[in-house]
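Minutes, methods subgroup
Present: GH (chair), OT, SY

1. OT presented the first of two proteins processed in the latest run. Sequence and structure tokens recorded below as shown on screen.
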Amino acid sequence: MALGLIIGQLDRGDTAIYTANFDTLQSMQHAVRGLIEFVPTDESVSMIVNDEGRILGMSQNAAADMILEHVDRFGLLNAGQGLVGDCIVFGPPDGEGELTDVPQFILDMVKL
């Protein structure tokens, strides 16, 4: 089980930011409202979004983009590929490939 930071988009354009424990693929799919996709990062964190977020017309997630700015090794934001829809942030995978708890520096960034 890993503690993840959820950066959710609410219907009226607001953002909900909170932590939750995740232990199954289904729990992650529920949090992002669909199939999951890992966002390429510098490997200090793992970021997960809805695989079809753009196709479904999900709105831009500025709070998740703020985190991606710090871990964007591949220049996604510079290429205009900001994150859309709900996002979950975890720590990097452990030696067995399992997700780890969201790092403290991310919680500090969002003031949790």
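2. SY then presented the second protein from the same run.
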Amino acid sequence: MYQASTGIPTSAPVPAAAPVAYRAFFVAPNGRVLGMVPLEASGEAEARVMASELVADGIVELWAGLQVVARFEGMAAGLRAETSKTPVVYRS
């Protein structure tokens, strides 16, 4: 692109970053995906809270796009009560 009056090159507008698609996957102990819920969250912190609230007695994995963010495990996953809903963070 060029500025019309001076002929000086101008930089192209920078497109806005696409919003991250957060999803909560319900996972069986053997690793099989049982279901998925899309989460409408404004950021990772809000998505983590929403995913942790979905944990009952199983396993919920929080994904941001194609990347695993956290894993929340409930009582049926074999954890003690004080460690339920504790995320296992995969992000480096």
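Chair's summary of item 2: Strands lie at 22-27, 33-39, 59-64, 67-73, 88-89.
Next meeting: continue with the remaining queue.
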